[in-house]
Amino acid sequence: MHRRFAGRHAAQGWHGSAAEFGNSAALLLGDLCLVWSDEMLHTGGLDAGTLARARPVFDEMRTEVTAGQYLDVLAQATGDTSTELASKVACYKSAKYTVERPLLIGAALAGAPAEVTDAYSAYGLRLGEAFQLRDDVLGVFGEPAATGKPAGDDLREGKRTFLVAAAFEAADPAQRAELTARLGDPTLDQAGVARLREIITATGALARTEHRIVELTEAARRALDGVALDGEARGALRELAQAATHRRR
Amino acid sequence: MHRRFAGRHAAQGWHGSAAEFGNSAALLLGDLCLVWSDEMLHTGGLDAGTLARARPVFDEMRTEVTAGQYLDVLAQATGDTSTELASKVACYKSAKYTVERPLLIGAALAGAPAEVTDAYSAYGLRLGEAFQLRDDVLGVFGEPAATGKPAGDDLREGKRTFLVAAAFEAADPAQRAELTARLGDPTLDQAGVARLREIITATGALARTEHRIVELTEAARRALDGVALDGEARGALRELAQAATHRRR
């Protein structure tokens, strides 16, 4: 959206910076969406008792995702390259927000028993992390035609993902120096992107990340074993596990 | 807050731009406050029926203020200098958000009759606009020691306030050219600020704005005449009208 607003600014020949206008307008749109998501929850026709069960989960989710975003910004600033911090960011920013909490909101609305909410938590955290790891791999190795993003954008931004952290952990001194120099360089060209891809592959970080995606996805599926779910819900959760981790964009 | 986070970044010698880190962190803190304001409303011990009365007013307020902020950003971009648009921005961004809606939330929580909510609306919109006009005057003529902001900051930002719009409306061609050239110039120095103050005063825009503050404040007070309010509420609203418009910061 920030690009679309910036484009409108440029096309109309308005005053000031088109990019800044785009950023301001997109941020305000984000605020509106945040406000409206909450309004929709409350005006969706749910009775007060049902709503009261879901509300604490919804509140916690919004605080967590904001804290996760801050952790992400902080990690890029401090330059912390540990896989431990990368996993923590992925947990708060992604796993909880994209999979675990939405399932728990549904469970709360439906008045599900603890056995189901526990299973949803275990499934959601693992699948959510796998989803984020797939995102990280696509951000570095994805095809622009499929992802809709320029190749290597995550590298130019210097995102501290598990994939990158794993490369740092296994890098020799020369590789480490090159990773440090090139990651987060906004002028990184295609040759620079290709070189970082080589290092990430050569250190085994790509294989380690792919292996972890498989492990997490299997663990997510196993978390549902033996839990009393109806067939439709179980089928949807199996499909979700597949769709979240086997994708090209 | 963005300056405080940027200062922390600079003091620690972290990677990347301290200013950008400050902006990102402060935006996330703003999101948290937005989310928490809503959470506090719902966890403050109000019963479901009372909450249901206040909720639509709260929802509308948040949408209005966001739209008002966008109108403000848009007016700066398009360079629209009409007093009409400046008043509209002040209405949505400030009058409704800072005075009218908070009163109406209170009225809804208390289950006030229509006579009271109508009077609160009339009082709030007028006083809220007067409050904003006082803000605009302080943004140009305020003493930095009292306001805590550098002198002329609003002029450097190029804010399209009623005060500035009134100056444009009454400016002769030479004054208009100078206003256009200097407003929004981030490098404006003290002499430039002094020159813009002179033009704003010479065009009668300052006097017109001060006159409008008095008119609006009196109209706000009159809106409460003959309405059944208890003495404490009436006294607080009179004090609020005074505090919002007679202030140095």
Tell me about this structure:
Chain A has helices at about 1-10, 20-40, 50-80, 85-110, 115-140, 145, 155, 160-170, 175-180, 190-200, 205-220, 230-245. In chain A, helix 4 crosses helix 5 (about 115-140). By secondary structure, chain A is mainly α. The first copy, chain A, is globular, with a radius of gyration of 20 Å. The mean pLDDT of chain A is about 95.
Give me some keywords for this one.
homodimer, mainly alpha, Farnesyl Diphosphate Synthase, 2 domains
List the helices and strands and how they pair.
Two copies of one chain form a homodimer.
Chain A: H1 2-12, H2 18-42, H3 48-78, H4 83-110, H5 114-141, H6 144-147, H7 153-157, H8 162-170, H9 173-182, H10 190-202, H11 205-222, H12 231-245
Helix pairs in contact in A: 1-2, 3-4, 4-5, 4-8, 5-11, 8-11, 11-12
Oligomer: homodimer
Which percent bin holds the helix content of chain A?
over 70%
State the separation between the terminal residues of chain A, measured CA to CA: 19 Å
Spell out the helices and strands of chain A N to C: HHHHHHHHHHHH
How many structural domains can be distinguished in the coordinates of chain A?
2
Average pLDDT for all residues of chain A: 93
Corresponding CATH architecture of the largest domain in chain A:
Orthogonal Bundle
- Kindly name the structural category of chain A: mainly alpha
Shape call of chain A: globular
Q: Which chain pair shows the most residues in contact?
A: A-B, 36 and 37 residues
Quick overview of this protein structure:
Two copies of one chain form a homodimer. Chain A has 249 residues and is mainly α.
